[in-house]
Amino acid sequence: MAVTKTKSQNYFSGISILLFIGAVIAVWMAAVTVPVLVCGGIKSLNPHYLIFLHLY
Fold first, then answer.
1. How many of the other CB atoms lie within 10 Å of CB of 39?
2. Which of 24, 34, 42, 45 has the greatest number of CB atoms lying within 10 Å of its CB?
3. Max CA-CA distance within the chain?
4. Per-domain residue ranges for the chain?
């Protein structure tokens, strides 16, 4: 006999996943992981590479 989920159980599954992702992002922001990655990425950009990538 198959167990069926109700709509509210399906919604709760999706919402719980989104809440978990939001919590992970919040922890990363609080630990300054995301700002460091963004700052490092911006510092590593070189205009010559951007022009080269634009041509292809």
1. 11
2. 34
3. 63
4. 7-55
Q: Which two tokens stand for residue 27?
A: 């922890």
DSSP string, the chain: -PPPPPHHHHHHHHHHHHHHHHHHHHHHHHTTHHHHHHHHHHHH--HHHHHHHHH-
- In this predicted structure, what is the pLDDT of residue 42? 86
Q: What is the pLDDT along the chain (56 residues), one digit of tens a residue?
A: 556 678 777 788 889 999 999 999 999 889 998 889 889 888 888 777 777 766 65
User: What values do phi and psi take at 32, rounded to 5?
Assistant: 65, 30
